[in-house]
Design brief:
The protein has 533 residues and is mainly alpha-helical. It has 2 domains: 373 residues, no CATH class; 133 residues, 3-Layer(aba) Sandwich (Rossmann fold). Helix content is 64%, strand content 4%. It contains 22 helices and 4 strands. It has a 4-stranded mixed sheet with strand order 1-2-4-3. α8 packs across α10, α13 packs antiparallel against α14 and α17 packs across α18. It is globular and about 80 Å long. It starts with 10 loop residues before the first helix and ends with a strand.
Length: 533
């Protein structure tokens, strides 16, 4: 990826990587949110031989399940296992950022702090709900697609190879989330326009020479997944899940610009120093230091922000899609400012200047460091969560619902409890913390179309799992089918599905005919199958 002289990591690089490692270690014991619990449950089911979409269904693309599956196989299907794999992934990303961006800056020492401005800012701004979300993980392959695309214009005879790898990384991105295709297309169009306008290639020949290797690269990982779909007979189901389901479901969701306000407030509050210097980096680009890599970073910011708004639900973690370009542009702004202040040749910059710049960065991002210090202090307060008891106390302290649900699933671990899968009308954490399988194909209740709700009710009656849990929010919706707005943790207003009430009544009929209330609390009610009492 770099010249031979740039492949070694120096002492400052090692220090930055050590900080990233330390920051990641602080997050290993963070409790799962509902999304992480559901994906871990699905990945664990896949590890046992179940086929995604056919045997257990969710609407996400396969990349996130494969990530959790690999992490679970290597380190275990639990918080520490998945977060350990994420940390190794982020450390690898940090090394790639350092090695690929050294030549991007006038003062190459700035490449050393890129991991702190990207991966470090991600960890420093994340609560447990945000870790291992697609938007954070996808930054690695998007960056590689961007870098290979930009580099292809500089490598002469190896252009096709670089474009192929750009397409390959783009294919990986699409396996994580199809909606990010416009970001990738913007990179490749930038290369095409550069070829036509700067290198004076003919439009048709330039299009063929550039798009052919990109297409082959994109096709490679997608072809592997398509073969998986054909082998398991789920190609039609996958097409429906990726294309028809989102369009039909979007008609029932409350898309409003007001949904974005809390998330935008989070972005500005948590990343204001990065945004400020990033804008200075963009200014420096328009001032004269123009290059294709910066063009692509700006395109990533603009197109990515548009896609975040287009998704419309306002979930805060969507904005982690922008952390990587923001961090790199921030470093570019620092590079330009440093050059302006010193007004000398970079070779004349002393080690003291490099240390001074690092100290300035530390002071600028002290709010993030303060958050990380708080997290570290909390972890130390609970004995670094080294024992099971300390880990649980630490997780309960961070996320009160974790302790509530853990107490609820203890009903299933008593000496008289009946083994077998369960079904939950509530938080997927019930599946994860109970270590029980999902009784039917669709593990979640909200965000379902009428035909899916009908399937849930039909399969629930047919499977008759020994235990069913009905959360308090589900009960509230059944009693009051007016538009419902989830709590602050959801970060979005979602209108109640207009067809939901009838399926709720049908579910209540099944419960009244076949089940008996076993345990009731403020969280919800457990029901036990009558012949299992």
């Amino acid at each position: 990826m770099t010249n031979a002289g740039e492949k070694r990591l120096g002492a400052v690089d090692g220090l930055a990587l050590a900080i990233v490692l330390l920051v990641g270690l602080i997050h290993l014991h963070q409790p799962f949110g509902g999304d992480q619990a559901l994906i871990t449950t699905i990945a664990s089911a896949m590890n046992q031989g179940e086929v995604i979409y056919r045997d257990i269904w969710d609407a996400k693309q396969p990349g996130i399940y494969v990530f959790y599956l690999v992490g679970g196989k290597l380190f275990g299907f639990h918080e520490v296992g998945i977060h350990t794999f994420e940390l190794l992934y982020m450390l690898s990303f940090s090394v790639v950022l350092i090695l690929t961006l050294r030549s991007y800056f006038t003062h190459r020492a700035l490449a050393s702090i890129i991991p702190l401005l990207t991966v470090g800012m991600y960890y420093g701004s994340s609560i447990n709900f945000f870790l291992t979300q697609v938007e954070a993980l996808v930054g690695f392959p998007i960056f590689l697609a961007l870098w290979y695309a930009a580099k292809s214009s500089e490598v002469g005879g190896r252009q096709r190879t670089y474009l192929f790898f750009s397409g390959l990384m783009g294919g990986v991105v699409l396996l994580f989330k199809l909606i990010y295709l416009p970001i990738l297309v913007s990179f490749w169009l930038a290369v095409l326009f550069d070829s036509i306008l700067r290198k004076k290639r003919r439009v048709l020949s330039g299009f063929v020479q550039i798009c052919t290797p990109i297409f082959l690269g994109v096709l490679a990982p997608i072809a592997v997944f398509l073969l998986y779909c054909v082998w398991h007979g789920i190609l039609g189901l996958v097409c429906w899940t990726y294309f028809e389901y989102p369009l039909d479901m979007s008609e029932t969701l409350d898309f409003s610009i007001k949904n974005q306000i809390p998330a935008l407030r989070f972005l500005i509050k948590g990343f204001s120093p990065v945004i400020a210097f990033g804008l200075f980096g963009v200014y420096d680009f328009f001032r004269g230091r123009r290059d294709l890599l910066t063009v692509n970073l700006v395109l990533w910011m603009i197109v990515g922000l548009g896609l975040v708004f287009m998704q419309g639900l306002g979930w805060t973690y969507y904005y982690f899609l922008l952390v990587v370009p923001l961090g790199i542009l921030c470093a570019r702004g620092l590079d330009a400012l440093w050059q302006m202040l010193l007004s000398g040749e970079p070779e004349g910059v002393s080690r003291k200047h490099s240390i001074a710049l690092i100290l300035v960065v530390v002071l600028l991002f002290s709010p993030t460091l303060e958050v990380l210090a708080f997290k570290g202090r909390e972890l130390a307060r609970y004995g670094f969560a080294l024992s099971k008891e300390d880990r649980l106390r630490y997780q309960y302290g961070l996320y009160g619902l974790y302790s509530d649900i853990d107490a609820e699933v203890s009903v299933l671990s008593g000496p008289e409890s009946v083994p077998g899968p369960i079904y939950v009308f509530g938080d997927p954490l019930f599946y994860y913390l109970s270590k029980r399988d999902v009784a039917i194909r669709i593990p979640i209740w909200p965000f379902l179309l009428p035909e899916q709700l009908e399937e849930v009710v039909r399969d629930l009656e047919r499977a008759s799992p020994p235990y069913v849990f009905v959360g308090d929010k589900f009960i509230e919706r059944e009693e009051d089918p007016r538009p419902h707005r989830p709590g602050a943790a959801d970060d979005a207003g979602v209108a109640a599905l207009p067809y939901l009430a009838s399926y709720m009544r049908e579910t209540q009929r099944i419960l009244s005919e076949k089940y008996t209330p076993l345990h009731e609390s403020a969280v919800g009610t457990w029901y036990v199958l009558r012949d299992q009492e």
